């Protein structure tokens, strides 16, 4: 009887050990699966975070590059604009010098007479004032004679090169036959047609 009890107990213990081994194996398998799942989950989160970080960095980099390019473009345009202004100023300074030299010739006196005659055909009523530059005061009598009617001739500080600016308040008319305004018109034309546009 005792031997039978020992045999039963031994079988019972074997069964318990077998069950325990199976449980351990199952727990180990589940633990391994859980660990793998957690690793995959962590890996997915890390990859997602890395992706967002890369996207943000790329967006910031693009923004910085665009800002840098825009800044460089602005600086280059400003440099080109300054260079264009220098070229233009140089060209028109030379043109002004030529006109000032022309104003010392006999042809300039003929031009003043032509201007005075042309103005008198437009400003037919009395009350006309002819403005000239300080340097042309010596030609007042010549200008009056060419105008052919009664008029005032006065010096204007705004006229630097020469010519005549005629004003008739009665007619509300201004006739600008100054070399200053003609040169300025050329400047405007030059700006539009010189192929030096920056913007």
Task: Describe this protein's structure.
The chain has 199 residues and is an alpha+beta fold. 71% of the residues lie in helices and 11% in strands. It has helices at residues 2-102, 106-122, 140-147, 179-193, and strands at residues 128-132, 152-155, 163-168, 173-178. A four-stranded mixed β-sheet has the order 2-1-3-4. Strand 3 (163-168) and strand 4 form a beta hairpin. The mean pLDDT is 84.
Layout: helices, strands, pairs:
Blueprint: H1 2-102, H2 106-122, E1 128-132, H3 140-147, E2 152-155, E3 163-168, E4 173-178, H4 179-193
| Total number of strands | 4
Strand order of the largest sheet: 2-1-3-4
Largest sheet: 4 strands, mixed
H/I helix tally: 4
Write the element-wise H/E pattern from the N-terminal end onward: HHEHEEEH
- pLDDT average, as an integer? 84
Helix content: over 70%
Stretches where pLDDT is under 50 for at least 5 consecutive residues are none
The outline comes out as rod-shaped
Rg: 49 Å
First and last CA, distance: 114 Å
Structural class of the helices, strands and pairings?
A: alpha+beta
Range of strand content: 5-15%
């Amino acid at each position: 009887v005792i031997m039978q009890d020992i045999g039963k107990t031994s079988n019972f213990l074997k069964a318990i050990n077998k069950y325990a081994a199976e449980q351990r194996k199952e727990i180990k398998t589940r633990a391994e699966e859980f660990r793998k799942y957690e690793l995959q989950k962590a890996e997915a989160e890390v990859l997602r975070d890395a992706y967002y970080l890369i996207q943000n960095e790329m967006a910031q980099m693009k923004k910085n590059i665009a800002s840098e390019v825009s800044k460089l473009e602005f600086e280059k345009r400003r440099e080109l604009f300054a260079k264009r202004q220098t070229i233009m100023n140089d060209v028109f300074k030379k043109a002004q010098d030529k006109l000032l030299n022309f104003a010392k010739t006999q042809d300039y006196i003929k031009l003043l007479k032509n201007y005075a005659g042309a103005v008198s055909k437009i400003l037919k009523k009395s009350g006309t004032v002819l403005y000239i530059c300080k340097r042309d005061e010596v030609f007042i009598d010549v200008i009056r004679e060419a105008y052919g009617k009664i008029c005032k001739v006065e010096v204007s500080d705004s006229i630097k090169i020469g010519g005549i600016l005629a004003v008739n308040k009665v007619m509300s008319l201004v006739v600008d036959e100054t070399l200053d305004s003609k040169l300025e018109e050329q400047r405007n034309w030059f700006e539009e047609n010189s192929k030096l546009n920056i913007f």
